[in-house]
Amino acid sequence: MNNIDKRNRLSEDEVFTYKIMKDKKVFIYWKGKQVSILTGKASDKFLKSIDGKDHLETQLVMAKLTGNFKRGNEKDGKSAK
Question: Could you tell me the residue ranges of all domains in the chain?
């Protein structure tokens, strides 16, 4: 696990959190901001993958699942004409 979290960011207090809704939707938050919504098979797969894991492993699963979400707002460099 040391090679994966080299900057030791996932061991901080609740970097990623999640909330399960009645309709089995899963909302994933990063530092209190919603970054992902899982529904259907994706939410079932996520819940199975974190079942029985400790805090750090659960944080790693959510980090891998959300991917590189912070770069979603960048423009692609092409100008619209």
Answer: 16-66
